[in-house]
Amino acid sequence: MSHTAHIPSHRKPRRNASKTALRAGVAGGVLSTIAVAAAAGPAQAEPVTQTIEMPTLTSGLSTAVAASAEATQQVALDLETQAHEDAAATTAAKAAKTAKAEAVRKAEAKKKAEAAAEAKAKAEAALRASRSEARTTLSATSGSTSVASSSSSATGSAASVISFVKAQVGDAYVSGGTGPNSWDCSGLVQAAFRSVGVDLPRVSQAQSTAGTQVSLSNLQPGDILYWGGAGSAYHVGVYVGGGQFVGAQNPSTGVVLRSLDYDPPSGAVRVL
Hints:
Radius of gyration: 66 Å
Oligomer: single chain
Largest sheet: 6 strands, antiparallel
Number of helices: 6
Mean pLDDT: 78
CATH topology of the domain at 145-270: endopeptidase fold (from Nostoc punctiforme)
Helix content: 55-70%
Distance between the termini: 209 Å
Order of helices and strands: HHHHEEHHEEEEEE
Number of strands: 8
Shape: rod-shaped
CATH class of the domain at 145-270: Alpha Beta
CATH architecture of the domain at 145-270: Alpha-Beta Complex
Strand content: 5-15%
Structural class: alpha+beta
């Protein structure tokens, strides 16, 4: 036996070729796996572990919402303003219509007032002319028998009527009065003729057309005198002869005996 047979060799033992290939394959596989894992691992892990923040999206959404709210508010304000404008226009139109109607009414009222004033002026002028004519007629006939006749010449019912009205001279004048101690003009005339059985209408207008119209130049005692137009008279009295009449004139004078010249009548009507 060699003297070196028991001395350990400093050489590494030879490896089996198949084992070496296997190990190399395993090592290569492991390295390949590590390499693939290293290459593929981050790409797969990143979407799982990374937190995505969207500050820009949130900020934009807030801005859009704010803008939408502002636009909505502006639309509401515009609608409210339009509603106020429409209401104001409607109110103005109504006011204009009312003002126009009032102006038309005032114009019509003014026109009617002017027409009434003109008619009144004409009536007053006609009345003055009638009174002037009556004064002239009475003056011209003052000495005639027809006008100068006195109550003493009256007979029958006319004399009774004259006596009745003369008996009331001094009584009070009261509107609507029919006696026995206060009268208005037509109430006195009605009562005087009723005393002889003649029933006359109650008011002056109707009494002025109750009999036959006679001229003021042909008066007889007992004729009814009227002031104003026939059918529209505003005052009546009784002619008592001698150019005089008795009538319930007004509250300040009461029932009086006056000359025709004191207040010339417009006309006369004969009932008896």
